[in-house]
Design a protein that fits this description.
276 residues, mainly alpha, MetI-like fold, 2 domains, 0% strand
């Protein structure tokens, strides 16, 4: 048998793929490495003091605020997003015009810049509803921002479930709701959870929308109506002031570690769900 000759165009494409892969990996390694080298030497106990001062620029209030905003945003977005996806895939019918319209709308909303969501949150939650700069206003704004992401990922995860599982459940006498709860959702849970992790990652790294809604107060919020700053905003404020550049790099290290921890935990939980 004659060996097929490799075309020069195929070699060129293969070389370009390897080249851009190396460039992407190299840029990531350089960026993370630079932050770690600059930030790790400046991580000290005072950086994790309970209360923020202009001397210690503690990240503890920012971490607590970040956790509060993540919890509140998911508390609002998850039921609405997952419930909407279930309705669109299991009740509305896949050829329904409403389904196509909602999909187009969610894809459009997913591409809107976060600063636009921030302006909307400022006009609606702060000026119209008079929430003021608060954890509540920031959480509601981010809930709206991550809603399209949760809806689309959940919808795709449910559509990926084999129709044979549905038909088998119906054949055994189970109703539609029982089939959804007992069969479809457990099978789609790894994909749904991946969407949740992406949403959490977007919340953790968000700053533009929260500047207009949650504010930049560097203290532990006593209630959801208090202003506060997340880790991303804390990093932005420190770097923009120019007075605590070293602490800003240390904050970036903490932020990277939190993102890595979230990705690790999400991977472990997703594997557990898929095996279960």
């Amino acid at each position: 048998m004659k060996r097929s000759k490799i075309k020069p165009f195929d070699l060129l494409l293969k070389a370009l793929v390897y080249f851009f892969a190396l460039v992407t990996a190299g840029a990531l390694v350089y960026l993370v490495g630079y932050i770690l080298v600059r930030g790790i030497p400046h991580i000290k106990p005072s950086l994790f003091a309970l209360h923020y001062t202009s001397d210690n620029v503690s990240v503890t209030p920012a971490i607590i605020t970040t956790v509060m905003i993540i919890a509140m945003a998911l508390l609002v977005a998850l039921p609405v997003g997952i419930g909407s996806a279930i309705y669109l895939t299991e009740y509305a019918g896949r050829r329904n015009k409403l389904v196509k319209a909602v999909r187009t709308t969610t894809e459009t909303l997913a591409g809107i810049p976060s600063i636009v969501y921030g302006l909307f949150g400022y006009l609606f939650f702060l000026l119209f509803l008079r929430f003021g700069y608060s954890i509540l206003a920031g959480s509601m704004t981010l809930a709206i921002m991550i809603l399209p992401l949760i809806m689309r990922t959940t919808e795709e995860a449910i559509l990926a479930v084999s129709d044979g599982l549905r038909e088998g459940s119906f054949a055994l006498g189970a109703g539609r709701l029982t089939t959804i709860v007992k069969i479809i959702l457990p099978s789609a849970m790894p994909g749904i959870f991946s969407g949740i992790v992406l949403a959490v990652g977007r919340i953790v790294g968000e700053s533009a929308a929260l500047l207009y809604t949650a504010g930049t107060v560097a203290k532990i919020p006593q209630s959801i109506f208090d202003s506060g700053r997340t880790l991303a905003i804390h990093l932005f404020v420190l770097s923009s002031e120019g007075l605590h550049t070293n602490e800003a790099f240390a904050t970036a290290v903490v932020l990277i570690l939190i993102v890595v921890l979230l990705n690790y935990l999400s991977g472990r939980i997703a594997k557990k769900w898929s095996r279960g």
